[in-house]
Amino acid sequence: MVALKRQEILDRLKKLGINSESELESYIEEYNAYFGLQKEPKNDKRAYSRISIGVGVKIFYNNDIFQGTVLNVSERGMFIGTNQYFSSDSMICIESDSLKVLAIVKRLKKMNGNYGGVGVELINPAHDYFDYLKAIKPPQ
């Protein structure tokens, strides 16, 4: 991954129409709301904490291949941003350069009449998946 200089980042933000820190915060809030990525409340009852990432993946489903972006992961599941419809409880395979897992579709996220993502439960993730999580987990 190439590190960008501060000015390059500012120039890219300006191309998106973001000219101040408050506009950037607003953009991030809108992005997170669109993809259902709100901060977890302290009283969150999820069994496993989520790690936010942005990894492009291929999704194999019914002999077709679709594109998506894994937006967050946990030990037993993930949320993938995609506009593709998947049947609830169907099995999909998710692959990237460093990841390959089987999963069951548990939740479809719909926004403004369009599909915005899918929540999945992993099926017996291999040890290398847990190694992957350890490698991307931010320091506490």
Shape: globular
Count of separate structural domains: 2
Strand arrangement across the biggest beta sheet = 1-2-3-6-5-4
Number of helices: 3
Rg for CA atoms:
16 Å
What's the total number of strands?
6
How helix-rich are the residues, as a percent range? Answer: 10-25%
Mean pLDDT: 79
Named CATH architecture of the largest domain = Beta Barrel
CATH class of the largest domain: Mainly Beta
Distance between the termini: 23 Å
Q: What can be said about the biggest beta sheet?
A: 6 strands, antiparallel, barrel
Q: Per DSSP, what share of the residues sits in E-state strands of 2 or more residues? A: 35-45%
CATH superfamily of the largest domain: predicted glycosyltransferase like domains
Following the backbone from N to C, one meets helices and strands in this order, namely: HHEEEEEEH
Low-confidence stretches: none
Named CATH topology of the largest domain: Thrombin, subunit H
